[in-house]
């Protein structure tokens, strides 16, 4: 009888050559999507081995050793097999837990633990081997053990089946996946034990056919089990065992080669010097090493073909990741045997795996191979076949996988010249602008090695220090400019600088070369190149000074290390010392170009301004102030003015010794602008006509003052009165140009805010507060008048300023101990609120066709307009949340949630969340109000006929579904809110009855279809009582229809407790599992029977979680509830359930159609018992008792309140006010 290992070695294997690999195998079809367990009975030619010759030579010798048990592996254990018990009762149990507990606790040295086991094995081989087997069984999480009797009398398949039946998998966790601190280190200890076991046995038991062959056979069988824990743990053990065997084989190969060299050297000696005894000894040693190597190769071949070939495509991604990771280690450590195309193909196929971790292991394994230049020659064929896949993985949806793919391509670029084509590289270049910083930096490193590094020239200084020559630095910046400008991939060089910072930071921090390029007269740079170079300069300075990436780029780091902070501080000092003398020169050269001056003025944000004092650089400060004044007077561009005002604000710090000098320069500049403003304003107010130059000059002066007023307190220049007079004239006569009105509004706004700042800091008099409020109210009236202006820019500016100032002067301003500001609190009147809402409808919620306005616009302009509309909507939503506007006005926003979700979805969702946090009940009523408004508008436009078939009505249903999802998973907490929403919705649907004598349905009846979207949020008992409430309401309809109304049928269908099984599933989607319900018939709802109560209670039980494996178990019924199997459910039972629910609905509709009174007994004992039983069913569920306090109060009200007390059960149909109609 042959052993399983021998059968695995001899079962129809065919060798595989590198040439047949790529000719006969359909590479593209071997995707990792085929993650099935595979068939282990037959192996294809693709699953060959490199150890065929040694296997054939070794088969005869291995057969003479101690035979293995004939244990064919059972791949699919029978489900009906009975549990085998009693085998170990008559014998002493093997110490199954000793070894497992020692490895789990890691209390002793692993080598000592293995040595103890070896001693016990030498004393008693059977018990020692059983202890080792039971260790692996316990490591799988199985509590069963293998006894000596089982080992002697049962085959491996029977043992595995017995262990499968004993496997307790209630939790789905096993040692490799179990949570908790005691299990976190188990996998490492387990792998270390396997490694140490092979290491300690490499000179003894490793070549004894009994223990290792039987262990390999058992692990192979377990790895083919249907139980995930067996498969996962045994695969990990087998792969780690294989890894250890590879290391032993490598050592044997080295020893054999060394022995061969010694033998050849001894044999080549002359007869007089040759030692026959030594020659014979070396020959015997070489022969023994050869035999050992063949033994090891046989084991490796069995493990590879018995475990790896099937498990690398396992359905479990963790198992696939283990296989690929270990295969990579084999290739790296024993490249002479494993770094062949017959093994590389598995990594190539698995590059297409669906799971992130598996793809990551593939890339990391390839990185180790491509990093060794000596191995790249063997990877040429593999690279040619899988290069396209590796390049495409740069765009992987998982960022860490994409990062590893880029790093792999960097190694290919460095170590395999000419492999990556220009097209391959061009597909990687755009990634330098990715939002993820790790991915962008990896792509930046690729760009650096591809384009920049080959052009560098270095020279040696003093024999030690290597410093780049100025020519090399200039070459670097010219290449950087060329790439950024010519590629046209992005508009902001800051992201390119950030991507290159980690690999080329030293070059980017060469501010001397940057500034010399900018200040050269014969630099031969175009206008675009100069602007780009200035942007690169500012970006590198900002990166060195602040140390964080640009806006919008995500990084996982929380902070800088002390070393990085030290480097950052040093760089800040260096750049400040270098740029302070050169900044006035740069401003003087580019002062005429607003696009270049604005970023240069931003450099002051990143300076260490104390250096002006400590290094005695005040003369350069004077030059800078002169250039700043010239720039501010010359330009009217908002970006330049804002940058200049902010730069002056940074210098106007009273703590600086030069503050007096800067303050004087500021006063001079403001005096100059104010005098010019007063002069030009008088001309405007007195003259009936101004030419364009005068209007432009006045508007530019006011823009400069507005920019200064934003950063500096200009109260002493008293700009409020002239600006207010100007705006008043614009409102009265309309003769003021638009260019002047916009900065005038801003100046008045800043004047009010600076006055408020002065009054908030000290005890202000009542007169001062009233004066400020009068100015604020007057300004609000001016803005309200501007809302109806013909110019949209004036309208939007007025809306933004008005929304901001209303929030500032809202009731929130008296919080924090500032009650003395109460006279300043201002709430808008109803007319102003109405105008704000109307403005929002006209300027924010507009269709794409309305935005074009008759001519095609560029994409960037449309994006800017979208940002402006989002800003307007955010201002209106803030007015709602701060209590400035009535919360009911939020319905104008919420009703556009679904239609404009792509543009404003995040803003509306945040507003809805905040509104629910403030008042859940009121927010629910607003949602219902939004649906009512939309329905009424649609009804007025199209009429009641065929309303529910219109596309607009379908959009309303989608909106209602989105509103229902916004309630979240807190079903019990929102119970009263959802019931209230249904009640109000039913009232609205029947609020208008059809005309007398008409057979038509009520015009609002289709609103019930919108309510049906909220039905999944109801409990069963709530649905029952809402059905009764709906029927009582429908009885008030004077004429009965000839056939049931479709909207009523749809709504009743959503309230059917049999059809809808989404309770306990807050997402509102039906469960996929089908349930067999107790009882074969349903009585009418007023007939409260025991079977009806039982079905309701069973439906309220949370669904049983799905099993995580196919372990054979005896099914245990859960309180009489039978689970129908996923694949074996009876079609007739499912059909019967559908017919049952249809019968119940038809009975309800027929009862309503015939006008039969529902529950004639009224609120009698039966009705109360029904409600009590339903509430007791809720109490039986522990989560309902303890989840929310509101649920407990609900139950207490239902059980203890008397019929005469107010605030009784809201679900009692006898308490619903029918007379409201």
TrEMBL record:
Top-level taxon in the UniProt lineage: Eukaryota
Entries under SUPFAM superfamilies matching the protein: ARM repeat
Biased composition (Basic and acidic residues): 1077-1095, 1183-1207
Bias type Acidic residues, positions: 1120-1130
Protein's cellular compartments: Chromosome; Nucleus; Chromosome, Centromere
Region Disordered: start-end pairs: 26-97, 1058-1111, 1120-1139, 1153-1221
Primary location: nucleus
SCD domain: residues covered: 308-393
Transmembrane regions: none
UniProt feature, compositional bias: Basic residues: 57-68
Keywords (A to Z) from UniProt: Cell cycle, Cell division, Chromosome, Chromosome partition, Meiosis, Nucleus, Phosphoprotein
PROSITE patterns: SCD
One Gene Ontology term of the molecular function aspect: chromatin binding
Example GO BP: establishment of meiotic sister chromatid cohesion
Matching InterPro entries: ARM-like, ARM-type_fold, Cohesin_Scc3/SA, HEAT_SCC3-SA, SCD, STAG
GO cellular component: a single term: chromosome, centromeric region
Cytoplasm is among the record's keywords: no
Composition bias, Polar residues: 1096-1111
Family under the similarity heading: Belongs to the SCC3 family.
Subunit structure: Part of the cohesin complex which is composed of a heterodimer between a SMC1 protein (SMC1A or SMC1B) and SMC3, which are attached via their hinge domain, and RAD21 which link them at their heads, and one STAG protein.
Function: Meiosis specific component of cohesin complex. The cohesin complex is required for the cohesion of sister chromatids after DNA replication. The cohesin complex apparently forms a large proteinaceous ring within which sister chromatids can be trapped. At anaphase, the complex is cleaved and dissociates from chromatin, allowing sister chromatids to segregate. The meiosis-specific cohesin complex probably replaces mitosis specific cohesin complex when it dissociates from chromatin during prophase I.
Protein name from the UniProt record: Cohesin subunit SA
Species in which this protein is naturally found: Myotis myotis (Greater mouse-eared bat)
């Amino acid at each position: 009888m042959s052993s399983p290992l021998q059968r695995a070695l001899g079962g129809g294997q065919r060798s595989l050559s590198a040439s047949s690999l790529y000719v006969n195998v359909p590479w593209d079809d071997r995707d990792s999507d085929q993650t099935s367990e595979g068939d282990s009975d037959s192996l294809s030619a693709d699953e060959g081995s490199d150890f065929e010759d040694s296997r054939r030579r070794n088969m005869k010798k291995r057969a003479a050793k101690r035979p293995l048990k004939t244990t064919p592996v059972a791949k699919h254990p029978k489900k009906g097999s009975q549990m085998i018990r009693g085998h170990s009762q008559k014998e002493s149990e093997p110490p199954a837990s000793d070894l497992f507990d020692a490895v789990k606790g890691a209390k002793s040295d692993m080598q000592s633990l293995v040595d103890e086991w070896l001693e016990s094995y030498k004393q008693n081989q059977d018990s020692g081997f059983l202890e080792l087997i039971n260790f692996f069984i316990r490591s799988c999480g199985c509590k069963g053990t293998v006894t000596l009797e089982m080992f002697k009398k049962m085959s491996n398949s029977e043992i595995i089946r017995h262990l499968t039946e004993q496997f307790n998998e209630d939790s789905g966790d096993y040692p490799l996946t179990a949570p908790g601190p005691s299990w976190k280190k188990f996998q490492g200890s387990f792998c270390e034990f396997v490694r140490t076991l092979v290491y300690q046995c490499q000179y003894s038991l490793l070549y004894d056919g009994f223990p290792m062959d039987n262990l390999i056979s058992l692990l192979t069988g377990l790895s083919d089990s249907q139980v995930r824990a067996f498969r996962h743990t045994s695969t990990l053990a087998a792969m780690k065992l294989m890894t250890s065997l590879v290391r032993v084989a490598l050592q044997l190969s080295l020893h054999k080669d060394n022995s061969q060299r010694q033998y050849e050297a001894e044999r080549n000696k002359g007869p007089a010097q040759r030692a026959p005894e030594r020659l014979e000894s070396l020959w015997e040693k070489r022969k023994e090493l050869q035999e050992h190597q063949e033994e090891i190769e046989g084991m490796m071949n069995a493990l590879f073909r018995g475990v790896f070939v099937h498990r690398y495509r396992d359905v479990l991604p963790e198992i696939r990741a283990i296989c690929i990771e270990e295969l990579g280690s084999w290739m790296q450590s024993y490249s002479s045997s494993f770094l062949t195309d017959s093994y590389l193909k598995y990594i190539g196929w698995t590059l297409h795996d669906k799971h992130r971790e598996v793809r990551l292991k593939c890339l990391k394994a390839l990185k180790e191979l491509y990093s060794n230049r000596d191995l790249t020659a063997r990877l040429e064929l593999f690279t040619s076949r899988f290069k396209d896949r590796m390049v495409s993985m740069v765009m992987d949806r998982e960022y860490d996988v994409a990062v590893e793919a880029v790093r792999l391509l960097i190694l290919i670029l460095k170590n395999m010249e000419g492999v990556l084509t220009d097209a391959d590289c061009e597909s990687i270049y755009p990634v330098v602008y990715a939002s993820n910083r790790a991915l962008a930096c990896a792509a930046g490193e690729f760009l650096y090695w591809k384009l920049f590094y080959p052009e560098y020239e270095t020279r040696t200084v003093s024999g030690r220090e290597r410093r780049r020559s100025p020519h090399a630095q200039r070459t670097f910046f010219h290449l950087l400019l060329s790439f950024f400008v010519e590629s046209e991939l992005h508009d902001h060089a800051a992201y390119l600088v950030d991507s290159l910072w980690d690999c080329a930071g030293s070059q980017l921090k060469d501010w001397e070369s940057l500034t010399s390029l900018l200040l050269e007269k014969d630099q031969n740079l175009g206008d675009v190149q100069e602007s780009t170079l200035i942007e690169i300069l500012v970006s590198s300075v900002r990166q060195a000074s602040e140390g964080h990436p640009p806006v919008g780029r995500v990084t996982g780091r929380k902070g800088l290390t002390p070393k990085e902070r030290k480097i950052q501080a040093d760089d800040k000092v260096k750049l400040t010392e270098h740029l302070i003398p050169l900044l006035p020169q740069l401003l003087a050269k580019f002062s005429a170009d607003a696009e270049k001056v604005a970023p240069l003025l931003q450099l002051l944000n990143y300076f260490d301004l104390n250096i002006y004092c400590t290094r005695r650089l005040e003369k350069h400060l004077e030059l800078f102030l002169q250039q700043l004044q010239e720039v501010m007077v010359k330009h009217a561009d908002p970006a330049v003015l804002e940058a200049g005002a902010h730069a002056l604000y940074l210098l106007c710090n009273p703590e600086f010794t030069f503050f007096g000098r800067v303050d004087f320069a500021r006063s001079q500049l403001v005096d100059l602008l104010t005098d010019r403003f007063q002069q030009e304003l008088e001309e405007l107010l007195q003259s009936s006509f101004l030419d364009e130059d005068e209007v432009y000059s006045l508007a530019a002066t006011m823009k400069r003052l507005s920019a200064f007023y934003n950063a500096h307190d200009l109260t002493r220049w008293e700009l409020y009165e002239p600006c207010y007079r100007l705006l008043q004239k614009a409102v009265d006569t309309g003769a003021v140009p638009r260019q002047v009105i916009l900065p005038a509004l801003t100046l008045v706004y800043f004047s009010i805010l600076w006055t408020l700042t002065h009054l908030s800091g000290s005890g202000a008099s009542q007169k001062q507060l009233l004066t400020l409020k009068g100015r604020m109210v007057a300004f609000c009236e001016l803005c309200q008048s501007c809302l109806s202006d013909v110019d949209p820019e004036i309208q939007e500016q007025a809306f933004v300023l008005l929304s901001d100032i209303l929030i500032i002067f809202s009731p929130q301003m008296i919080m924090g101990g500032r009650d003395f500001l109460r006279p300043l609190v201002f709430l808008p009147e109803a007319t102003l609120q109405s105008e704000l809402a109307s403005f929002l409808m006209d300027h924010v919620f507009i269709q794409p066709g309305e935005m074009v306005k008759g001519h095609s616009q560029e994409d960037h302009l449309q994006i800017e307009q979208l940002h402006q509309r989002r800003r307007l909507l955010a201002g209106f939503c803030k007015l709602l949340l701060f209590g400035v506007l009535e919360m009911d006005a939020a319905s104008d926003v919420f009703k556009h949630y679904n239609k404009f979700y792509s543009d404003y979805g995040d803003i509306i969702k945040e507003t809805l969340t905040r509104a629910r946090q403030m008042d859940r009940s009121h927010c629910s009523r607003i949602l219902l109000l939004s649906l009512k408004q939309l329905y009424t508008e649609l009804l007025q436009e199209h009429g009641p006929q065929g309303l529910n078939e219109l596309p607009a009505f379908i959009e309303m249903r989608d909106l209602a579904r989105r509103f229902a999802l916004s309630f979240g998973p807190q079903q019990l907490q929102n119970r009263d809110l959802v019931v209230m929403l249904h009640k109000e919705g039913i009232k609205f649907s029947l609020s208008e009855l059809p005309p007398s004598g008409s057979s038509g349905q009520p015009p609002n009846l289709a609103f019930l279809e919108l309510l049906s979207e909220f039905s999944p949020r109801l409990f069963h008992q709530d649905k029952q009582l809402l059905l009764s409430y709906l029927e009582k309401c429908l009885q008030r309809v004077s004429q009965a229809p000839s056939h049931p109304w479709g909207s009523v049928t749809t709504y009743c269908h959503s309230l059917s407790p049999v059809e809808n099984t989404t309770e306990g599933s807050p997402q509102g989607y039906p469960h996929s599992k089908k349930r067999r319900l107790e009882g074969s018939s349903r009585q009418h709802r007023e007939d409260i029977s025991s079977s009806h109560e039982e079905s309701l209670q069973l439906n309220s039980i949370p669904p049983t979680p799905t099993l995580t494996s196919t372990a054979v178990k005896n099914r245990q019924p859960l309180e009489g509830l039978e689970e129908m199997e996923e694949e074996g459910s009876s079609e007739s039972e499912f059909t019967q359930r559908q017919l049952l629910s249809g019968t119940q609905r038809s009975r309800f509709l027929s009862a309503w159609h015939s006008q039969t009174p529902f529950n004639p007994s009224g609120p009698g004992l039966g009705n109360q018992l029904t409600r009590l039983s339903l509430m007791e069913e809720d109490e039986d569920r522990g989560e309902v008792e303890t989840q929310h306090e509101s649920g407990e109060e609900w139950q207490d009200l239902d059980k203890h309140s008397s019929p005469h007390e107010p605030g009784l059960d809201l679900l009692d149909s006898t308490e619903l006010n029918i007379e409201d109609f």
